[in-house]
Structures are given as structure tokens and as C-alpha cells.
Amino acid sequence: MSLFINLKKLGVNTTVLATSISLVACGGGGSDGYYNNGSPSGNTGEGNTSDNNQSETDTSKVANSLSISLQDIEGKPLQIAQDNSQVKIAVKVLNIDKGGIAGKDVRLSIGGEDLGVESTNSKVSSDENGVALFTLNIPALQTDTGKVQLTAKVEGTTVSIPYTLNIKKTSTIISDYNLNVPQGLVLNLPKGSTDVVVQVTDAKSGAKVGQTVELTLPPEMNGKFIVETGSSVTTDTQGKATFKISANPNLTSDDIANFVESSQKLSFKLIDEYRAEKNAVTSLTFKDISSVVNKLEIITPEDSIAAKDGTAKILVFAKNSAGNVLKNTQVKLAVDAIAKYYGVQLDKNEATTNSEGYAEFTLKSNSNYPIALSQRGIELTATYENNPDINGKATVQVVTADSSVNNQEAIQRLEIASAYKVNAVNDSVEIKVKAINYKGLGASKGNITLSLNAGATSNGVTFDGAATRDVDPNGFVTFKLKTISLTPTPTQKAIDALIDAGIEATFTADNGASNKINIIVDNEIVSEKTIDYLQIDPILNTFDYKKDQTITVKVKALDEKGSPLIGEKLQLNKNTQFQSLGLSLNGNAEAATRDDGYAIFELDYKYNGSEPQRIAAEQGVNIVFSAVRDSKKTQSIKLNFATQAKPELDYLTVDTDGIKSIILGVEKIVTVRVAAVDKNGDALANQLVNLNVKDNISLTKGVSYASPTEVTTDSNGLAVFSLKVKAQNQSDYDALMNGFDIEGLCCTKI
Fold it and tell me: Of 478, 481, 427, whose CA–CA distance to 453 is shortest?
């Protein structure tokens, strides 16, 4: 006789308990053959008679006897039938040589107790093997056992066979585990879905991994709703099984109306590792959200609005979750505070959507700060009073148009990108100038002329190309200035003179519009070697986005031989993400490399708690550096921010494969699974876990470790261990039957 070890989880500790399994034999209808020579005294497997089909001269086709057998629905032999199931009765028509005869009609009749057993067909023709298969539907029994009398007979003959079908009531073992189902479930219609999370726990609320949970929808929901996860789900490390129920997108308005007025019952069945079962139900109600606002969408004009005396029509659409517009819905529209300060306003703050699903607003701009307004635009926000979380945003572009000028395409003004700084010797700088027309857009026609101050030109400052250049289609012109050349060797007097004079660059349009910029000149040494590439020291850590901090970035300039370049000017390229992220530079955007070839940039990060900052932090930010004298030489690095706290271990659970048999002198392997769960209830990966056999006596009685005692949890939060159990003698065997304790322990987290 085999004895079994049943490993039961008790919180974090697991106790190995001894138990025994009893085997029970099941009986059923049998047969030794029936030859129609008297009344049978029980089931028979074969029947025989003198038939009435003497007209058949081929004895191989003459039915001489029958055999009968009981099968399950898959065709496997059975001795006894279970109630509330389907079984098959296989009747074989035999000739005198016991060969099967095809094409014979066999009729099956049912008598005896009235248990409600029914056959799907009363007459079936035998197949090529001579077998006629009948399918019986057996209802649930009210008593523990029952039986019905079956008789199979070949049509047109007296060949028949009786069979007693014994039926046993199915006994379902009730699981000791808890099946916890949620209450108050709501599914939005149309096109909605809901996640139904059920949890399996043991008697001490420990999560049970690897248990099977089945979901059955009521007949009313079949074909109209889909269980996307499948109707059978295995529990995870938290003992949870998640079912996603989605509405069929083809639901009619009548379907929706019927479901909204009712609730439906969801039936769950737990089948645990011991094949024990437990049932639970919950109700699902439905909500019609076809008239509920899910999204607001702002439509702005394609053309920009003029900063002075400009107007624009703004449309706000209200839509439901299916994307359909909603009429008679009240929405609000607001202008951002800065634009309002600059002189922008709406004709009204609130309006109701019309029959086409949109509300109409008029935006007016009469700004005294046209340039500032054109640089930032007008930000609009639409809101819905019944749900502040639903909003829509849009930006209206602004131009500084001057309608009093006849030639709107003419250059109105020149804009220069930013301030510049160069070294006195062997340096260069590119200056980008943009011509703006009277519409506030880049001028596509006209030219710009560059002139330098006398102190610059007399001390070796030159520029590439012609002094006068046409604007490109976007209104830009770029000039490249060069400082004193290294050949011939410059005198200190010339260097000092240039530093004193500085560089003043004046830009004049063909219609007289002009602008100028002063460029600072330094006396730093710039390498004669060509810059080959930039290298950024890696930043491996993730920054806490809720913490004010200074971030240092080290960028190295190297020549074609990999040697560091000294005095090479590097710059941090402009990044629009900095503002939303709360990131700014400490110092200049340009820095010269030191003796070791590094230029140091410091970024100042300030936490402001805004939603745009959180979103920007989740995405991270790529910062790009380039060489000033060769803007094609670039390098970038991504700064990553942690927007969620690092998960911390909350508790461990210990589980095993369940029943294992042990035999004296035979080694058995017991698998132990330890699950780590964080404080959010999620599986915790990369957690070091230790398995310990608590009582040392067991280690001397045949229990030993078959795997390392320290294991790191995988992506599912599981650490798997193995124990060997081998009782060498009867004394050890008896000691193990008293059980032994194991525990999962937390080690230092990785």
C-alpha cells in the first residue's frame, strides 16, 4: 500500500502532513454472452437466435448474434454510467463466424425504471464494422443508484440482446478553497467591456496559484457578448483569474434596451488541483452610455488668426464612446490665461451642441503683444460639466498681420535665432536670420545683406559666400562667420584688437528692414584637428521625478585618432520638452572642452507636480549635443525618470505540487514554489528568496535540498525549489509520517 504526502500551505510556512488514500472499486453491467435460449439472469454481451432472413444465401451477411458494450462520449469503455451525462451504447451485428455485418438496422428500446434516460435515435444502421452506435442522455438521479433495461434488436429478425445499464449518482467533492467573486459589476453599452477578477484563496486567505476557474454566461448573453480571455482561466501568483467580457459590436438598439433594463447572472466554477469544485455567482448590470459624453473634440480653422483684429470660428464636438456625436449637450470652452492677458477672448464661455453634435464659438484677438502671441499661439480647452476628467485641447496659430500694407508678402522685420560667442582664433559661427512678412509668416521673397563692423573685418573676420543672399521658401538665410586664421600665425596684437572690438553683424533686407547682433569674442585655444565624433558618458540611473535635483552630463570631443580635443565648443541643442518637464540649464548652452576633452553641462530639474510633467517624465527626454564648428557632429542621450515608487516586498506565499507518494528506500522529488508579492498586490520579480526546512531532525531522516536554497523570483514573481525525500529505514519512514515544516524567507532584494 502506498502512503502519500500532502503539502498544505499555511501562510508563509508550509507543513507536510501524512495522509492515506483509499481506492474504491466501481461495478457495472457485464456480459458473458446471450444466445436467446432462455431468460437471461443479468447483462449479456452477445445475443443469438434463429433469424427470419432465410432469403439471404450469403451466410456472411446473415445476422446470427449481437454484442453490446458501454462507452463514454469519447468512445472509451465504461463499466458504469454517471448521472447527468451522455454515454454511448455500441451494438455489433455478428454473422455466424463472429464477423461484423454492415448495413443492418438495429433498434434500441429502453425499459425498466422510469429514470428519464433517452436515446437520440431509436434505430441506427450498422457501419462498415457492423457497429450501430446509440447516444443516451442520462439525467440527474434523485437516488444514489439506478438502472434501466435496454434491448437491442436487428430489424426484421428475432436477433436481439438485453443489457442492464447501471447508473451511479455523480458525487462532487467540495473544494476547501474560497472562490471570491466581485459584486456590483457594470458593463457599458454599446461596445463596452469589463474585466471580472475572481480570486482563489485557502482557509487562511493565502493566494492559490494554478487553479482553474470557469465562467458560464447565461443563455440570454450567448452570441451577444464575448469572453475574450476564454471561459477557462488559470489563477496567477495572486490567486486571481481575470475574465474580460465584451459586448458584441453588432448589438441592436432593442438588444441594448433589453439588457439595460435587466441584470444577468454570471456563474463561476473553481476546479482545484485535487479536482474538487466550488461554485459562486455574481450579477452583471448594464449601463447605456450612448448618450454619455466620452470625448470632446475641438476643430480650429486651418488658417492662422491675426493677432490684431483677428477672428476665428471654433467648433466643439461632443462624442460618445462609439465615436458618435451627441446633440443637446452643454460644453464649455476657455482660453488660456496668457492669451487672455494678451487680448484674446471668446464670444461666450458655454454653449449647447446642435443637431450635428457641435457647439459654435467665436474667437477674437486684439492683441497689443502680437509678436509674443504669435510665438506661443492660443491654447483652447473644452470641458464637460458632468465629468471634469473629460476635456479636449487645441492650439490656434497666430500671425502678426498688418492689413494696412498693400504688399503683404514684403519683409516686415528680421529675426535672429539667438546670441552667439566665438573664439578669436580658428573658430566659426553660423548665424540664421529669418525674414517675416506682413502676414506674420516667413517671407518667401526678398534678400538680406550682411555687413560687419570695421573692427572685425580689419582683424581677420571673414564670411563664406556672398554678402547678399535670397531668402529660402521659409524666409531663412544662413551666414557663416570665421575668426582669425591660424595661417599665417596671428599676432597677439590682432587677437587683442578683435577681442576688444568684438563682432557686430548687421542684416538688412532689400526693402530697408534691418536687425543686428553683437557676437562676443573670447581668447580660447581651439584645436586645429578635425572633430571626428562626440561621446557622452553613460547615465545608468533613473531619476526620481518627484525630487528636485541637478543632472550633470559630460560630453567628450575626439579627433579621428580618438584623442580628446581641447577648447572645442559644444552646445546643447534646443529641446521643446524641457519646459513641460521642468528642466533648465545651469549656465550657457555652449561649453568648451577642458584639457581632458570633456565639456560639462548641468541641468536643473524642478518638480512641480503637474500632469504634463508626469507625462513627460514617463516618456523620458532625449537631449542632443553638437559641435559648434561642425553641426553635423552630434550625439544624444536619454534621461529616464521614475514616475512610480519602486515595488517593495509585502509578503511571501508557499505552495507545492500537492500529493506525492513516498515508498521506503525510494527517492522522491517535491517541488516547492514561493511567490513574492509587492505592496500593490502584484508579482514581485528579482526578489531573492530563501527556502528553509525548519526542523533539523527531518534533515537527518531523509529530507534534503535538491536545488539551491536561495533563488531569485522570475518575471511572474515565482522562485522554484526542489526537496528530496527518501526514507532509508522504517524508523525514518515513521518519522516522516509525522510531517515536517518548511518556510520561505525574504533575503536582501536585488
Answer: 481
Give the integer Cα–Cα distance in Å for 36 and 66.
Answer: 10
What does the alpha-carbon distance between residue 351 and residue 330 come to, in Å, rounded to a whole number? 6
CATH class of 178-288: mainly beta
For residue 737, give Cα distances in angstroms to 118, 289, 354.
50, 61, 80
Say how far apart CA 687 and CA 666 lie, in whole Å: 34
C-alpha cell belonging to residue 227: 469572453
Question: What is the three-class DSSP state of 173?
Answer: coil
The SS3 assignment for 55 reads: coil
- For the chain, percent helix, then strand, then coil, each to nearest 5? 10, 50, 45
> How far is residue 702's CA from residue 734's CA, in Å, rounded to a whole number?
11
Query: Is 649-746 assigned to CATH 2.60.40.10?
Result: yes
Task: State the fold for domain 533-642.
Answer: Immunoglobulin-like (2.60.40)
Contact 461, 482 (CB under 8 A): yes
Q: Which of 89, 63, 86, 67 is nearest to 77 (CA)?
A: 89
Query: Which CB contacts under 8 angstroms, 24+ apart, belong to 117-123?
Result: 117/148, 117/165, 117/167, 119/89, 123/155
Estimate to the nearest angstrom the gap between the alpha carbon of 304 and the chain centroid: 39
| Topology of the domain comprising 65-168 | Immunoglobulin-like (2.60.40)
In sequence order, the β-bridge partners of residue 361 are 314
State the Cα–Cα distance between residues 179 and 185, nearest whole angstrom: 17
Query: How far is Cα 374 from Cα 305, in angstroms, rounded to an integer?
Result: 9
Q: What is the pTM of this model?
A: 0.34
Cell of 296: 470632446
CATH code for the structural domain at 411-522: 2.60.40.3450
Mean pLDDT, consecutive 10-residue stretches, the chain (750 aa), reads 32 30 28 34 45 65 94 89 91 94 95 84 94 93 87 94 89 85 89 92 91 94 91 93 92 88 90 88 88 87 85 92 85 91 92 93 89 84 84 87 67 78 85 84 90 93 93 91 86 89 93 90 68 88 86 92 86 86 87 89 89 86 89 89 69 69 77 83 83 79 85 88 85 76 67
Does 649-746 match 411-522 at the fold level? yes
Tell me how far apart the alpha carbons of residues 712 and 410 are, in angstroms, rounded to a whole number: 71
Q: 295-399: which CATH topology?
A: Immunoglobulin-like (2.60.40)
Residue owning grid cell 536619454: 638
**Residue 585: which residues within 8 A CB-CB, separation 6 or more?**
572, 601, 602, 603, 604
Who contacts 127 (Cβ-Cβ below 8 Å, separation ≥6)? Answer: 102, 133
* Domain residue ranges of the chain, discontinuous segments joined by +: 65-168, 178-288, 295-399, 411-522, 533-642, 649-746
Q: Are 87 and 71 in contact (CB under 8 A)?
A: yes
Nearest to 509 by CA among 439, 416, 430, 419: 416
All residues at 6 or more sequence positions from 189 whose CB lies less than 8 Å from its CB, including other chains: 247, 251, 256, 259, 260, 286, 287, 288, 289, 290
